[in-house]
């Protein structure tokens, strides 16, 4: 299970904040979309890769995951059955969010975001 407090890399956090200004969609919603998009695309985490979770937007698990908390935990357990510690699961979650965030490139408005989500 994921820890109670989660955060992302500073770069991704800054990108999400900028996207919020352009679209009005909050970073936690974008993180949820990015996480599941990453799973859909078949991304697999390599825990040996350095991932500095140095962002300042530290939110509780419920805020980050919302109604997707159960689905997120089930997906993590299914994809990474041997990983049981909260710290590693947090890193995996953050790496998936980072990977899936590619969907947000070239987004300049809410309609563009919605078009991008519906076509990919």
In short:
The chain is mostly helical. 57% of the residues lie in helices and 3% in strands.
Secondary structure layout:
Layout: E1 5-6, H1 10-23, H2 27-40, E2 59-60, H3 61-65, H4 69-79, H5 86-100, H6 110-119
Antiparallel strand pairs: 1-2
What does this structure look like?
It is globular, with a radius of gyration of 14 Å. The model has no long low-confidence stretch (mean pLDDT 91). With 120 residues, the chain is mostly helical. The protein has one domain (5-105): Orthogonal Bundle (Arc Repressor Mutant), CATH 1.10.1220. The protein is built from six helices and two strands; from the N terminus they run βααβαααα. Helix 2 (27-40) crosses helix 5 (86-100). Strands 1-2 form a two-stranded antiparallel sheet. The protein starts with a strand and ends with a helix.
């Amino acid at each position: 299970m994921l820890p109670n407090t989660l955060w992302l890399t500073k770069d991704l956090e800054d990108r999400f904040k900028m996207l919020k200004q352009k679209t009005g969609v909050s970073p936690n919603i974008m993180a949820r979309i990015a996480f599941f998009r990453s799973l859909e695309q078949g991304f697999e985490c390599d825990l040996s890769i350095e991932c500095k979770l140095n962002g300042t937007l530290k939110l509780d698990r419920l805020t980050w995951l919302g109604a997707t908390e159960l689905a997120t935990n089930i997906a993590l357990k299914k994809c990474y059955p041997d990983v049981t510690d909260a710290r590693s699961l947090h890193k995996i979650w953050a790496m998936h969010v980072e990977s899936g965030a590619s969907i947000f490139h070239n987004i300049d408005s809410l309609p563009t975001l919605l078009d991008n989500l519906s076509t990919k």
